[in-house]
């Protein structure tokens, strides 16, 4: 009998290879299937929910479990230590679905190219001396669009190329784990634009209500991850 995680994977493959007219209903079906995924469905090891694992000297603040990868999508699990976080980062021209399977997380999401950010950019362009434009490299204008606490009872959180494309994810009240589906994967080519890379950002300043200037930073030194093998049911595609 097909397992639930295998059904999610098959629907993810169908979604991210579907024709444009079938994409929206397939994405909706994927989100509905993902909503019902539990830690048991992927055999998440109970040790990750204990505080003692995370207090071991030298333990990485984040553990990743790769479940599946092809040229269209990746599926994996991220586990955050108590009080841990994934620093603010982007997903260039990507879709993403996050489903909490253990603990609780806070997801703070920003969008680019919204009416508010475009208005801010238009005004600052008119105000700026041309030489200042040069220093704008690696700075983006982003609108804070949501800050939500999710637990295992929450629907999946979705990001799109033009919606909630940047986010920071923190564990709340202990360790937390979430299943993550990303499409297309990091490392694939963006047409006419080069490789799809993950960039990290920090808030530079606030420029108007919910609008911030973010600057690109190197991956923070406190953030690194280790890997753990997938021990859930075998997957067939
Ligand atoms: Fe992300």
Describe the overall structure.
- With 237 residues, the chain is α+β, with helices and mostly antiparallel strands.
- Helices cover 21% and strands 38% of the residues.
- It is built from five helices and 14 strands.
- The strands form three sheets. The chain has a six-stranded mixed beta sheet with strand order 7-4-9-2-1-14, with helices on one face. Strands 3-8-5-6-13-12 form a six-stranded antiparallel beta sheet, with helices on one face. A two-stranded antiparallel ribbon has the order 10-11.
- The model has no long low-confidence stretch (mean pLDDT 94).
- The protein binds fe (ii) ion.
- Fe (ii) ion (FE2) is lined by residues 89, 91, 96, 167.
How many domains make up the coordinates?
Answer: 1
Report the end-to-end length measured between terminal Cα atoms: 14 Å
**Mean residue pLDDT:** 94
CATH topology: Jelly Rolls
Main beta sheet: 6 strands, mixed
Q: How many E strands?
A: 14
Q: Could you say which overall geometry the principal axes of the C-alpha atoms support?
A: globular
Please tally the helical runs, counting DSSP H or I stretches of 4 or more residues.
5
Bound molecules: fe (ii) ion
The CATH architecture would be Sandwich
GO cellular component, one term: mitochondrion
Keywords: Iron, Metal-binding, Oxidoreductase
GO molecular function, one term: oxidoreductase activity, acting on single donors with incorporation of molecular oxygen, incorporation of two atoms of oxygen
InterPro entries: PCO/ADO, RmlC-like_jellyroll, RmlC_Cupin_sf
């Amino acid at each position: 009998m097909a397992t639930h995680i295998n059904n999610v994977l098959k629907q993810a493959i169908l979604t991210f290879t579907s024709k444009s007219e079938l994409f929206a209903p397939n994405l909706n079906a994927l989100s509905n299937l993902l909503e019902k995924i539990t830690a048991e469905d992927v055999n998440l090891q109970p040790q990750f929910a204990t505080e003692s694992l995370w207090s071991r000297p030298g333990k990485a603040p984040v553990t990743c479990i790769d479940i599946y990868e092809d040229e269209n999508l990746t599926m994996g699990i991220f586990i955050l230590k108590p009080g841990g976080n994934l620093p603010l980062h982007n997903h260039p021209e990507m879709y993403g679905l996050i489903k909490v399977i253990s603990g609780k997380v806070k997801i703070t999401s920003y969008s680019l190219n919204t009416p508010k950010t475009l208005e801010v950019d238009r005004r600052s362009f008119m105000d700026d001396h041309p030489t200042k434009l040069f220093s704008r490299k690696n700075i983006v204008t982003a609108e804070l669009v949501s800050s939500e606490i999710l637990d295992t009872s929450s629907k999946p959180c979705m990001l799109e190329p033009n919606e909630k494309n940047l986010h920071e994810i923190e564990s709340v009240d202990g360790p937390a784990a979430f299943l993550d589906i990303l499409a297309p994967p990091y490392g694939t080519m963006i047409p006419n634009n080069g490789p799809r890379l993950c960039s990290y950002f920090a808030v530079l300043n606030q420029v108007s209500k919910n609008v911030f200037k973010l600057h690109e930073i190197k991956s923070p030194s406190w953030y690194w991850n280790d890997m753990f093998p997938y021990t859930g049911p075998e997957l067939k595609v």
